[in-house]
Amino acid sequence: MKKLKLIFCCLFVLLTMVSCGSSKPIVLQNETTKTRIETVHDTVFKIEKDSSSIAALLECQNGKVILKKIVQSESGSKLKIPKIRLADNLLRVDCEAEAQKLFAQYKNTFESENKITQSPPIEVNKLTFLQVLQIYMFWVYSLIAVIIAGWVFIKSKL
């Protein structure tokens, strides 16, 4: 029974000593965020068609074909004038073009900076001086009540 009363008194003291949270100042932070966006674009170059041509007169002598005269030859914008070879009744025409690259990429970079500012919160139910004084006086009264209860408890046992 004595231990039960002692435990009860200790719990009573602990419950009366518990207080609300402290009033700490509010710290506001201004944040800056940087955003960087890189976009890779592909592009295709259109190359117009190109042609080269040649016209020649052929003649047959002793059963073999020979080249008599080149009448007309044209080169294209990329193609050179065709080369003609005639050997053993076989006509060969060669056209050459320069090498071309058709694929390309380019990057587009966009950077933005956002500043985030926080405003202080609005205190709606701020206690007045009288209310704060009443709270502190309650704690003083509770402390005095615990001391008197302890004194009475000790006196009753002796």
Describe what this molecule looks like in 3D.
The chain has 158 residues and is α+β, with helices and mostly antiparallel strands. The protein has helices at residues 2-17, 129-157; strands at 31-44, 53-61, 64-74, 83-87, 90-94, 103-116. A hairpin with a 2-residue loop joins strand 4 (83-87) and strand 5 (90-94). The radius of gyration is 51 Å and the shape is rod-shaped. It starts with a helix and ends with a helix. The model has no long low-confidence stretch (mean pLDDT 77).
Low-confidence stretches: none
How would you state the average pLDDT, rounded?
77
Order of helices and strands: HEEEEEEH
What profile does the largest beta sheet have?
2 strands, antiparallel
Q: How many helical stretches?
A: 2
Structural classification: alpha+beta
Distance between the termini: 16 Å
Strand order of the largest sheet: 1-6
Write out key terms for the chains shown.
single chain; 158 residues; alpha+beta; two-stranded antiparallel sheet; 2 helices; rod-shaped; membrane; transmembrane helix
Present the secondary structure layout.
Layout: H1 2-17, E1 31-44, E2 53-61, E3 64-74, E4 83-87, E5 90-94, E6 103-116, H2 129-157
Antiparallel strand pairs: 1-6, 2-3, 4-5
Helix pairs in contact: 1-2
